[in-house]
Every structure is written in C-alpha cells, then in structure tokens.
Amino acid sequence: MFTDRVTHLEAEGAYAVLARALEMERSGREILHLELGQPDFCTPEHVARAGMDAIAEGLTRYTPPAGLMKFRELIAADAGARRGVTITPDMVVVGPGSKPGLFFPTLALVAPGDEVIYPDPGFPTYHAMIRVAGGVPIPVTLREENQFSFDLDVFDSKISDKTKLIILNSPSNPTGGVIPLDDLKHIAAQAQKYNAWILADEIYSRLVYDGMESAPSIASIDGMLERTIIADGFSKAYAMTGWRLGYMVAPSALAERLELLVTHSTGSTAMFTQYAGMEAITGPQDFVREMVAEYQRRRDRLVDLVNAIPRVHAQKPQGAFYVFPNVKAFGLSSKEIQARLLEEEGVAVLAGTDFGPAGDGYIRLCYATSMEVIERAMEKIHRFFERL
Ligand SMILES: Cc1ncc(COP(=O)(O)O)c(C=O)c1O
Q1: pLDDT band per the 50, 70, 90 thresholds, residue 14
Q2: Residue range(s) occupied by CATH 3.40.640.10 in the chain
Q3: For 227, left (φ over 0), alpha (ψ -120 to 50), or beta?
Q4: Sign of torsion over alpha carbons 225, 230, 234, 239
C-alpha cells in the first residue's frame, strides 16, 4: 500500500519509551526520566526575548529559503571560526533544526544502490534517511575499547568505490564519544582516495568537557571542506530544541541544491526564530559555558554512580550528554533491561539497540536532567542490577 521508501520507517526509540512512561505517569506512577536527549535548561532569556520582539515587530513572514542573508553571514563567520576554516554565506543553508541538514544532503548525494557508511550504534535518523534515499546502509561498529570511535580496520574493509557518503557524529549520540583527530585524518584520507562525501553531524560539537574547546572537525583537515557537509544547529548549544533552528554547511554548488530542497519542502525557517538565532550567536556566551560546566559536573557524578554498580561499567565520555554503560554481564538484551527498569523501578532509559544492533548490551542514560533526578534514578538502577 505504501512505498518502500516509507514502509521501513520506525519511530525513534526515545518516543516509544516516553509514550509508555507518560502512560505510567497518568496512572499515578512516578517516573524518573533519563531517556529524552534534550537540554533541561530554558532557552537563554536574551535569546527568547529576541524571538518575541521579532514577533511583536511583525517579523513573521517568509524568508528566502536558505535563510536571512544577515543570519547566514553570522553563521558562516561563527561556524568557520570554531573550526578554523573559511566558510562563506553562500555555503550556509538554514533549516528548521539540524535534521534537514542530515536528510537533504543524503537526498542530494545518494542515488539508489549507493553505499553509505554510518556509525552503529548511531542516531536512528541516519539509517532512516539512507533507506529513504534508496541507498545501501553500511554500518560500521563503534568500539567501546576505542572510546566509541570507529574500528578503523573494519572501516577500511567497508569503504570502496561504491561508497558515496560517510556519516560521522562527533560527539556521538548515544555514546558521548569524540572522534580523535588522528582517526578523522585516517577517515579523511580514505574519503579522498575513494572520492566519498562526508556528512559530519556536529550538533554536539560545543558540548565537550575537560577543557576541550570544541570537538575536532573533519572539515578542518586540508582539502576536506570541499567534500564535507556539516550539520549543526541551536538545539543543544542554546537549549532551543522546540524553536527548530539549525543549518547545513556545504560547498556552494551543493548548497544551491540543498536550498532547492528547502524551497520545495519546508519553504523556509520561521523568521522570528532566525532573529533569536542571530541573538544567540552575537549575544553573550556565558550561558553555553555555564551549561557545559553543569553537564560536566553531572557527567562525573553519573559515571561514578554507574561504576559503583557491580558488573556494570561505563567510560567517561568527552562530549554530548549521554553515558553508555556496558551491561553485558547480565546476559539480558538491552530491550529487556530497558523495559524492566521502567516497569520495576520507574526509571526511563533507552536500550542501546534503539541505535543499531551493535548497541546490544548497552543502555543510554541522558544526564540533561537535574542532579537530584540523576542521583535518585541511579539509586534505583543500582538496586535493580544488584537484584538481577
Ligand atoms: C546526533 C543528533 N543529530 C541531530 C539531532 C537533531 O537535532 P535538531 O533538534 O537540531 O534537529 C539530534 C537530536 O537529538 C541528535 O542527537
């Protein structure tokens, strides 16, 4: 009845768990939420105010599909400075969130039968959009022993002349892992050798810890900007998930095609949201620094609490706001652990397999929530695993 393009699509695991958790809450159970990957902070006041002022001033119209030129200029300067490269405004296409920056480049580059390498475990949208484009998904496992970076030998065995696109996500959802510069250099050399494009999902690039300024970007490596699309946005760095504001950066000829995909799909991004985005870039950045410091405090506490559980262990991830503990010792599937934690302890987490088969034996804990919730949830999780 429906096309192949859509019959394989599945909901994100987070929404299915959230729906069950909300149902349990409606029946009076208290649920501690560690499942949804969105900041618990409010959008900074000055940014929200800029959006509201724009509405009050009647700035509520269509904008050019690729975004307001002033905004594209600001994004180009900011995104370029943070990666040490020159990005011009014609390379920037604004979209409602960073997700269009994943979908549209895939539609523009991947023809039926083309192979696309992507991380497993990885953000479920990658697999979905590869299939929608008719591409062949080629998962490459992220290895815990490599700080959840690609196993480069496996990567080398999967890349070939058929590889059209390589998707990277650093820092990663669901592992929090940051791809080291040396690994990026290896991947870059292979992309050049096989003439493949890179789609770098860098939505978490500013959420990095232990004194790191920004996660290394493959776009910064010599000769790579011309074959890289960067997907980034405002959802995570400025706590703006519901505003729907992001952008893609691509070589200008590709950016023109991406703009046309925006023209014929979403049309444009809300004008007042773009004004809020301009304030986010040009206004004070203390909020980002303070938020990152708070995430780091939570991460440290959460990792300590996880590692205090017998037979469970987790690395201390360098980025994003997820911890990805290894729970293989119990011999249960991730899905079973996720379902039992919710039903028996009222703690909502995600199964590693919501991010691909290589996520089995792991669960994802999101620490974009208060320290109090983290500590109470971990008490229950500890009790649960001791009981198993
Ligand atoms: C890895 C990754 N990429 C992209 C997105 C989408 O973000 P946006 O709200 O900017 O569309 C998310 C959201 O959770 C994510 O985790």
Answers
A1: confident
A2: 45-282
A3: alpha
A4: negative
d(CA 190, CA 196): 8
Q: pLDDT per residue over 187-245, tens digit each?
A: 999 999 999 999 999 999 999 999 998 999 999 999 999 999 999 999 999 999 999 99
CA pair distance 49, 72, nearest whole angstrom: 21
CATH 3.90.1150.10 placement within the chain:
4-42+286-387
What's the gap in Å between 211 CA and the centre of ligand 1? 24
- The answer to whether 345 and 338 have CB atoms below 8 angstroms apart is no
pLDDT in tens, 111-164: 999 999 999 999 999 999 999 999 999 999 999 998 899 999 999 999 999 999
Residue at token pair 């919710």: 342
Q: What is the CATH T-level fold of the domain 45-282, as seen in this structure?
A: Aspartate Aminotransferase; domain 2 (3.40.640)
What pLDDT digit, counting tens, does each position of 284-310 carry?
999 999 999 999 999 999 999 999 999
Give the residues surrounding ligand 1 with Cβ less than 6 Å away: 37, 97-99, 123, 169, 173, 201, 203, 233, 235, 241, 246
Domain 4-42+286-387 has CATH 3.40.630.30: no
